[in-house]
Design a protein that fits this description.
Largest sheet of chain B: 2 strands, antiparallel
Structural class of chain B: mainly alpha
Number of helices of chain B: 12
Helix content of chain B: 55-70%
Strand order of the largest sheet of chain B: 1-2
Number of domains of chain B: 2
CATH topology of one domain in chain C: MetI-like fold
Oligomer: heterotrimer
Number of helices of chain C: 12
Chains: A alpha+beta (556), B mainly alpha (288), C mainly alpha (321)
Order of helices and strands of chain B: HHHHHHHHHHHEEH
CATH superfamily of the largest domain in chain B: MetI-like
Order of helices and strands of chain C: HHHHHHHHHHHH
CATH architecture of the largest domain in chain B: Orthogonal Bundle
């Protein structure tokens, strides 16, 4: 993949010398990466110095002392560089001895376990560079929203940095828990929109991840984009191809549309042979995203959940088509589909028990030969092939969108001591900056996923997630449609959708009735929040929606 | 005929025990199953662990996950603190409830103290759905600086289980004939002395049962410890619910291992009290 | 010989020979007040503030996401809006009815099983102590654990179905957790599994407290086992039975752990009990004022039910028979 060389948009207009150094550093790192070599570095031990001369001869910061660490180093006038410099220079009154940081337990590994072996983990590196200790408090994902709500209600300032999911931004901002970060963003210029170090998907993604009602309240450090995977050994099998063509009348190629997917799921559904057709999740809290996957591509360029006056569109023909497809294809999954959560799905995939599935993009990270899910020795990793999410043909044009949910982000707790707010923000700017984030996302000890442009070309990330998956992400993330986010009451909207989808899937309601119930429930929530205000927030959130119908441009 | 009935009785008891203990068996075997055997999705049910291991126990006490997980480094966790916290808060909370509740129960039973309404009001404490009680108490505890403290948990545990003690002990006190305390008073005891020396010993069985029940309630509590604590003060059930790893999600085996360990204190307590129960209390002292 | 149960008489009475109540004795008043004092303090602490606060916010639309402190909730005054929403919400009404049904079923089965077992355990047998302790184990498994254990046991391809398949012809594939009718049954079964030991324990303790002399007297009179049960044992144990039923009933009404861990109240809302509904509203939607209103409705209802259930108990005590 071509190395893109651009200026760091966020840095202040630097000296010509500064610009040159940046370009050379990037090229050197790219060359090293391309060769698979690391620039020679001194003996191990992981002792980081704050400035170090590299081959290109400019002072840099970041990790050091291990092979390849140069890729994640940065000059002083970069977002992470500025963060460190400012954090070090904080007056004593504003410099806390420690920052209490809430994190999902599954994420703590990304920040605090050495990767590669022998390297100083990011949190420790920050401590060495700034003198501010980091204390992680595990915040269980299932309880995080309740915990945050409780903290907001009781004005609890014991955590400097809180953990949230993308859907919670609106509620927690309204609750006063999340500090408005506009002033810090203007002052310290994070690299969120940087073409190389910023979020994959550019400004659109930044808006979706970090902004509510036009202001930044959170810093996302995750990329829970869903990918669609097939078993390429099955698709490549001539006998299968022949049988499929005979039965369905068209060639067996990776599915571009949901109709094709349904046919192929039916074709490969052989429970007696321990092969399920498609195992994308259908359970409560996890399965609703797969409805979204089928819904957002029912209109060109994209199907919204509401119109511009917050009238629900979910119970229109697009929603019905999506739900009918969802129900139909449930039959090609496990009988326990309504209770399967991702561990069951991953275990089954590792056993070679399914032909297709939709999962977090860390599927390929965890399905390596000899890995935790390869207990039967099937080595599904070598047979897994990611493709862009199928879509629908809308007036002859192919519309395809992937989506995402959960997605970890962090915010500064308003109720924590105000004098330390800046220090807390600087930690977030540093740890979610392109270089540092790209480094920590490859760590198999945690489940934070790629979300930066740089991740696409990073050798550690590519080898960890497999090159094919990373390439598919490159194709599809710019066109990703948000799930329900950036609104007050987002969780209520999701609840209503989730519960009624379950009712439809278990036969308690007909599909149209279920969707109508969703729409009615959504209207109630909108009225409770205040229609005018919600309309404004919704319209603002559309800045995070894709403008193109198929960012993968028809490729599979 | 008697022998037939007896063997029938034994068979029924054995059958019921087997049915009730099967999930317990499943929990115990899960604790010794390696990660591969936690959720069989290939159609194979592991009735007995194929490769029993102590990995899960090691994991919850600070070890890194072994076996096929070894290339994945997960953050080590240690359950010891949470177990200690649970022990402290449950035991002291139970004692608090027992003390306050037994006195109140005697007062209501023997003296009709508080009139008709007190007993019922105490019962009403339990009628509020716990979620609704927790929210105001959350604020109250925050104002009193009892939030996320062991003392705070002890007080709330004592308070929410005290109604059980009152009502259970009241019913056991009701079974004690008045004559017994009357006789003690005639013999020269004070009211309190009569209570302590002649009545209390008679309800030992009831007290033991109540103590066990209350302890189990406090020991198993999840919601209260989750909402009213959870940062610095983490009880074992809350800790357990958070045992996840990046690779395998909820670690069933590790949770089962901790679950098995958590059976021990209530088990010990019940072994201690079964002597009191089974001894058989006789009221032979009174002849009417 | 008259077989009576001794229960209480009015406060402060003393019995003289012949059991004739006299006027209340003053010294008892102090002792009695002292005994209940700590209880009253606890009661006030934990009832007064919470109830007042819950009533207050239930009349508003304040939630944590309003952004203001709770005591400023009057700014979002709505009178009985929340109550109206709750009582006209089909989801809540259905959950309430479902909870009542599950409570009655669970408590009933737990009582019958527990009482039957207690009767079986009454006479000594070898290993009775061990068996008693073993039988109590289900109670001692923390719900956080039994939740996921039953989740694994009740899967469509899980051990329970596999075991039943071995006995009945064909494959038994009940969808315990995903069928709307079976899901509440599964949750009820877990509750029965967990709490029958408690009923067993309480009833055993109660049965054992029956005075030996009265049993012996009945034996002398030639009573059969069944007559002994009906005329000697049951009247004495009745208060304990009632208490056990009331207490377990009240607890079963609040059933949460099993329902949430097994099915999240699903599929959809098929096994949503009142507590599950409240939990969702409180912690997933942060609708704290709505929850307060619903909780007060529940409390009023349970109060009424319990006060009716207690009447036989109080009547018995009045009569002293």
């Amino acid at each position: 993949m071509e190395e893109q060389v651009h200026q760091n948009e966020e840095s202040p207009a630097g000296t010509p010398a500064g610009r040159r150094a940046t370009r050379r550093q990037v090229v050197a790192a790219g060359a090293a990466a391309g060769l698979g070599l690391a620039v020679a570095s001194p003996a191990a031990g992981g002792v980081a110095k704050s400035t170090r001369r590299t081959r290109v001869g400019r002072a840099v910061g970041g990790p050091s002392g291990w092979a390849g660490s140069q890729r994640y180093q940065y000059p002083a006038d970069s977002a992470p560089g500025r963060a460190i410099a400012r954090a070090k220079a904080l007056p004593a009154a504003n410099k806390p001895a420690q920052l209490v940081v809430g994190l999902y337990p599954g994420s703590i590994g990304n920040y605090s376990t050495p990767f590669p072996k022998g390297a100083t983990p990011p949190a420790k590196l920050w401590e060495q560079l700034t003198g501010i200790k980091i204390k992680f408090v595990p915040v269980d994902a299932a309880q995080a929203y309740a915990k945050n709500t409780r903290m907001a209600a009781t004005r609890d300032g014991s955590m400097n940095i809180v953990q949230l999911g993308m859907a919670d931004t609106g509620d927690l901002a309204e609750a006063g828990l999340l500090r408005d970060l506009s002033d810090y963003v203007a002052k310290h210029k994070p690299d969120w929109n940087d073409p190389k170090w910023g979020y994959l998907g550019g400004k659109t993604t930044t808006q979706m991840f970090n902004y509510y009602n036009g202001k930044p309240y959170a810093v996302a450090s995750d990329g829970d984009y869903q990918i669609f995977v097939i078993r390429k050994d099955l698709w490549a099998d001539p006998a299968e191809q022949k049988a499929f063509k005979a039965k369905y009348g068209y060639a067996l190629t990776p599915p571009r549309t949901w109709d094709e997917q349904a046919d192929m799921a039916e074709f490969f559904h052989r429970p007696n042979d321990n092969l399920l057709g498609a195992t994308d999740l259908r359970s409560a809290a996890w399965g609703w995203i797969n409805f979204v996957m089928r819904y957002t591509s029912t209109a060109n360029p994209v199907a919204y959940y509401w119109d511009d006056n917050m009238k629900p569109l979910i119970n229109g023909p697009g929603g019905l088509k999506a739900l009918n497809h969802l129900i139909k294809t449930t039959a090609f999954g496990s009988k326990d589909a309504l209770t399967w959560v991702w561990p069951e799905q991953y275990q089954n995939w590792g056993d070679g028990g399914a032909a297709m599935t939709i999962a977090f993009n860390n599927l390929t990270k965890f399905h390596k030969k000899g890995g935790p899910f390869d207990k039967s020795g099937f080595d599904v990793g070598s047979k897994t092939h990611a493709i862009p999410m199928p879509g629908w043909k809308v007036n002859g044009k192919l519309v395809r969108h992937t989506s995402l949910y959960f997605n970890a982000s962090n915010g500064v707790n308003t109720f924590s001591p105000a004098k330390y707010h800046e220090a807390a923000y600087l930690f977030l700017q540093w740890v979610a900056s392109g270089p540092i984030y790209t480094w920590l996302t490859a760590n198999p000890g945690g489940y934070q996923d790629p979300c930066k442009v740089a991740c696409l070309t990073d050798p550690l990330v590519r080898s960890s997630y497999t090159p094919r998956t990373v390439d598919v992400l490159a194709m599809t993330v710019p066109g990703a449609a948000p799930s329900i986010t950036a609104l007050k009451g987002a969780n209520e909207y999701i609840q209503a959708l989730d519960i009624n989808l379950q009712k439809a899937l278990s036969g308690q309601l007909s599909p149209q009735k279920a969707l109508d119930a969703v729409a009615a429930s959504w209207d109630r929530t909108t009225n409770k929040v205040g229609r005018a205000r919600q309309v404004a927030a919704w319209r603002a959130s559309k800045a995070g929606w894709p403008k193109m119908a198929d960012s993968a441009k028809g490729k599979v | 005929m008697k022998a037939l009935l007896t063997s029938l009785r034994m068979i029924v008891i054995a059958a019921v025990l087997c049915i009730f203990l099967f999930p317990v068996y499943w929990t115990v075997t899960m604790a010794f199953k390696p990660a591969e055997e936690w959720t069989p999705t290939g159609g194979k049910t592991y009735w007995v662990p194929d490769h029993p291991t102590f990995d899960n126990f090691r994991r919850i006490f600070g070890g890194t996950p072994g076996g096929s997980d070894s290339f994945l480094v997960s953050t080590p966790i240690n359950a010891t603190d949470s177990i200690v916290t649970s022990l402290v808060t449950s035991i002291v909370g139970t004692l608090l409830a027992l003390a306050v509740g037994t006195f109140a129960a005697y007062g209501i039973s023997r003296y009709r103290a508080g009139g008709k309404m007190l007993g019922f009001s105490i019962l009403q404490l339990r009628m509020f759905p716990p979620i609704a009680v927790i929210i105001p108490v959350l604020f109250l505890w925050t104002y009193l600086h009892l939030f996320d403290t062991r003392l705070g948990l002890i007080l709330i545990y004592g308070a929410v289980t005290f109604p059980f003690v009152v009502w259970l002990m009241k019913s056991f006190f009701d079974e004690v004939p008045r004559e017994i305390s009357e006789a003690a008073i005639v013999d020269g005891c004070s009211q309190f002395g009569a209570f302590r020396k002649s009545v209390l010993p008679l309800v030992k069985g009831g007290l033991a049962t109540t103590a066990l029940f209350v302890f189990i309630l406090n020991w198993s509590d999840f919601l209260i410890a989750l909402v009213l604590a959870g940062n610095n003060v983490v009880t074992a059930p809350v800790f357990l619910s958070q045992i996840t790893s990046a690779a395998t999600g909820e670690e069933f085996g590790s949770r089962a291992a901790l679950g098995v360990i958590l059976i021990t204190p209530p088990m010990l307590l019940s072994i201690l009290i079964q002597k009191h129960l089974v001894r058989g209390l006789t009221f032979g002292a009174i002849k009417r | 010989m008259e077989i009576t149960t001794d229960t209480t008489t009015q406060a402060g009475d003393s019995l003289q020979a012949g059991g004739v109540p006299t006027a209340p004795m003053h010294p008892h008043r102090h002792i009695s007040r002292l005994m209940i004092l700590p209880g009253i303090v606890l009661l006030l602490l934990l009832v007064l503030f919470p109830v007042v606060m819950e009533i207050y916010i239930s009349l508003t639309t304040w939630t944590p996401t309003t952004g203001s402190q709770w005591y400023l909730a009057y700014r979002n005054w709505t009178w009985f809006g929340n109550y109206w929403d709750g009582l006209t919400s089909p989801s809540f009404i259905t959950a309430a009815v479902r909870t009542i049904v599950m409570t009655v079923a669970a408590t009933g089965v737990e009582f019958l099983l527990g009482f039957g077992l207690a009767l079986l355990f009454l006479e000594k047998f070898i290993g009775r102590g061990v068996a008693t302790v073993l039988f109590l184990i289900p109670m001692m498994i923390v719900p956080a654990v039994s939740g996921f254990v039953f989740l694994l046991l009740l899967r469509t391809d899980g051990p329970l179905n596999t075991a039943i398949s071995a006995i009945v012809p064909g494959t038994f594939e009940a969808r315990w957790l995903t069928d709307p009718t079976l899901a509440p049954v599964a949750v009820t079964l877990v509750d029965i599994w967990q709490w029958t030991p408690l009923m067993f324990l309480i009833l055993l303790a109660g049965l054992m407290a029956v005075p030996e002399d009265q049993i012996q007297a009945a034996d002398i009179l030639g009573a059969s086992w069944f007559q002994k049960l009906r005329h000697v044992v049951l009247p004495i144990v009745k208060p304990i039975i009632l208490i056990a039923l009331i207490i377990r009933g009240m607890e079963a009404f609040k059933i949460f752990d099993a329902a949430w861990l097994l099915t999240q109240g699903g599929p959809g809302e098929a096994s949503s009990t009142i507590s599950v509904k409240l939990y969702r509203e409180a912690f997933q939607n942060s609708q704290w004022s709505y929850v307060a209103a619903l909780a007060i409705v529940v409390m009023i209802f349970v109060s009424l039910a319990a006060s009716q259930a207690i009447k036989p108990l109080e009547r018995q005590q009045e009569r002293g028979a």
